[in-house]
Amino acid sequence: MLPTKEDKSVESFDVRVVEETGSTNDDMKTHARSSRVSRPLVLEAKHQTMGRGTRGRGWKSPEGCLAFSLLLPFSMIRVPVSLVAIAVGMGVCSALRDAGRFACIKWPNDVWFEGGKCGGILCESVKDADGRSVLIAGVGLNRDGAAERTTNGWPISGLGDVLACSDHAAPNPMLGPLVTGILGILTRDRADVAAAWPFYDAFAGRTIRLEDDGGAWKGLNMGIDSLGRLQLKTNEGVKAFFSGTFFNDDAAY
């Protein structure tokens, strides 16, 4: 359960901090189902023991990792559901760039920095106590890189001292800028988000290999359309994907 103490240092949303929890997204689900969600709420955990990524993958939270979840009603969001994770990623990258870390997005929801994955985003939805749909956007960012690789063979990078936090009882100094960046993008129009994508795409104009439930594909990354679908120019023409997994194919990079 969430603690009752709130940090109202940022007027547009409330922040709660815990030393340790299983999953901030799961905590937010529990909170939302028993509450009326009328404004954004952020939960930061200094350590997660059961963090989750997409497709049920585990998310490790080593020391120095910044892990938080943002809860807000869908009535505050202007982008369509299919663009929400991409918009959250753009908000994260925008804040990191302002802090001197030129982060990008590996479609659809990995945060990319200096040739490796430095973070991930998991967006989920539940109903609050009034039956209204609410968004839970979970974000995990690495301070340090690692010698090991992701399950798909990608390097793991870190953002360094930009995530430093000397007071474990206080929100990470980057939390405010990150959440502000996310909220700013989520309230933009669909066309604005799609138009901004080329500035955040870590693999813009490159040949990529992608797998989805329909098979494996290789082609030129043509960006996303207004629904957030990845456009891949293959030997069979341009194909659009709502979801899929990039793999590290050395022949393609």
TrEMBL record:
The keyword Membrane applies. It comes from the Bacteria. Pfam families: BPL_C (PF02237), BPL_LplA_LipB (PF03099). Its EC number is 6.3.4.15. GO terms for cellular component: cytoplasm. InterPro entries: aa-tRNA-synth_II/BPL/LPL (IPR045864), Biotin_CoA_COase_ligase (IPR004408), BPL_C (IPR003142), BPL_LPL_catalytic (IPR004143), Transcriptional_repressor_C (IPR008988). GO terms for molecular function: ATP binding; biotin--[biotin carboxyl-carrier protein] ligase activity. Residues 14-190 form the BPL/LPL catalytic domain. Keywords: ATP-binding, Biotin, Ligase, Membrane, Nucleotide-binding, Transmembrane, Transmembrane helix. It is an enzyme of class 6 (ligase). It catalyses: biotin + L-lysyl-[protein] + ATP = N(6)-biotinyl-L-lysyl-[protein] + AMP + diphosphate + H(+). The chain crosses the membrane at residues 77-96. NCBIfam families: birA_ligase. This is biotin--[biotin carboxyl-carrier protein] ligase. It comes from Sutterella wadsworthensis 2_1_59BFAA.
